[in-house]
């Protein structure tokens, strides 16, 4: 089944300039901005400007230029936040939720870059 992109999602509105955001980095293909409800001292969302729903959609269908730009911007976010291991930082976590099992709230592909404190184990134990 093809990926159906809903252009009324909140990140599409941010990309169209209809809703403000706290931009960290913007390039031709990628926008990085602070999460409105940060879960840690560093919590930045990295999104492609193209209409991709999820990690698998982006990785399968985006152009090489989009994918490289996304990866480089993510690395710059980590470096500039001082959490990257190459900067002597103490590390971070990148997360991308997809669909109902992934509890994805906004159906536009995004990478959460989270750090600035010890983050605990990756997944909670099943209830
Ligand atoms: P998801 O659950 O889809 O992986 O995460 C969506 C994230 O988007 C959440 O962490 C939430 O706080 C963030 N978010 C939702 N609406 C807005 C918004 O209008 N602006 C910003 N900057 N972040 C938002």
From TrEMBL:
Motif Histidine triad motif, residue range(s) on this chain: 108-112
Domain called HIT: residue spans:
10-124
Q: Give the protein's recorded name.
A: HIT domain-containing protein
- State one molecular function term (GO): catalytic activity
**Residues passing through the membrane, by range:** none
Q: Active-site residues?
A: 110 (tele-amp-histidine intermediate)
Q: Which residues form a coiled coil?
A: none
Q: Which organism is it from?
A: Palleronia sediminis
């Amino acid at each position: 089944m093809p990926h159906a992109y809903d252009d009324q999602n909140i990140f599409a509105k941010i990309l169209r300039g209809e809703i403000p955001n706290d931009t960290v980095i913007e390039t031709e293909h990628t926008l990085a901005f602070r999460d409105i409800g940060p879960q840690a001292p560093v919590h930045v969302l990295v999104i492609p400007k193209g209409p991709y729903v999820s990690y698998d959609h982006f990785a399968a269908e985006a152009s090489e230029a989009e994918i490289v730009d996304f990866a480089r911007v993510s690395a710059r976010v980590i470096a500039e936040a001082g959490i990257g291991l190459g900067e002597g930082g103490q590390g971070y976590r990148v997360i991308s939720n997809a669909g109902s099992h992934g509890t994805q709230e906004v159906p536009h592909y995004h990478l959460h870059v989270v750090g600035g404190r010890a983050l605990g184990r990756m997944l909670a134990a099943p209830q």
